[in-house]
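I need you to check the entry underneath: sequence plus fold tokens. Let me know what the token row says about the fold.

>
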Amino acid sequence: MPQAHPANTVIAVLCLVCLCLTPGLRAQEPEKTHLLQQAYLLWEQGYILHSLGEYESAAENFRQSIEAYPTAEGHTFLGWSLSYLGQTEEAIAQCKKAIELDPDYGNPYNDIGVYLIDLGRPDEAIPWLKKALRAKRYCCAHYPHFNLGRVLLMKGRVEEAVRAFERALSHEPDYPPALEALEIIREREGEAL
């Protein structure tokens, strides 16, 4: 008997967990709830596939999630997978669609900032990163602080960059990129003496 791919097993478990955790939703608006559950399951599958490096398959799952029920998360994470496929401008467009659906969701603001940095347009990234910092619904404030620090460092504003990296660490004390950035800056300052 052929063995199931490990990702399929994880996906099946997540599907069961989602169905068990959302009974209250089903009682309110059955049709909307069904579509939202379907979208969520497809989004989770896309997330797992992206984490496994299956970016094209992940993007397809995120597209199917959006078709089932458009969400800010669906568009943002579709953008994430597209960025790994080298489709950065389309990734930005997906994040803008996410913002239209939920302006309080912080992820797409930060992601647009990152994509603009990657495109060599760091000045354009700054307002997006600042919007991410002000977002009402954003669990990961260390990301925009860190990315703002990257931009400031590129611009030669080292002291401001250090403060941004330190703010990132105030939200996530063990965040490796911020720790590494501060270590590099301190090493360079030591060499300059």
About this structure: The longest helix spans residues 30-51. The radius of gyration is 19 Å. Residues 113 and 125 are 4 Å apart (CA to CA).
